[in-house]
Design brief:
Largest sheet: none
Number of helices: 5
Shape: rod-shaped
Distance between the termini: 116 Å
Helix content: 40-55%
Order of helices and strands: HHHHH
Number of strands: 0
Structural class: mainly alpha
Length: 109
């Protein structure tokens, strides 16, 4: 066995560096899509779009890179917007709607 192939050799140690993809500037696509879909849900009240908005928000929250948070912003915004879109779309099913108010008719004096 040659000395260059020995993994225990201290001269072959390499300093740890972060992957180059972490240090590049770029926006988080899941966060942008989550906020876009959440905005569409709030405008159209489409319940079926609220679930993908929440899933994209969760995905962007768990896949955030520690070096990108200062450039892109926190992913809490996309998570909260996805959750609020889900709540707003299902809120009319929970609330009790009142009927139109009846105005009493009084005879003229």
């Amino acid at each position: 066995m040659s000395s260059t192939d020995d993994p225990r050799d201290s001269s072959l140690e390499v300093r740890f560096t972060l992957p180059p993809s972490w240090s590049t500037d770029g926006s988080d696509g899941f966060s942008a899509v989550s906020m876009l879909i959440a905005g569409a849900v709030m405008v159209t009240r489409n319940r079926f779009l609220a679930w993908p908005a929440l899933l994209f928000g969760i995905s962007s929250f768990f896949n955030q890179h520690p070096l990108r948070t200062k450039d892109v912003g926190p992913s809490w915004q996309s998570l909260i917007s996805g959750l609020s879109a889900l709540v707003i779309s299902y809120l009319p099913m929970v609330l009790i709607a009142r009927g139109p108010a009846q105005v009493p008719i009084t005879p003229a004096p």
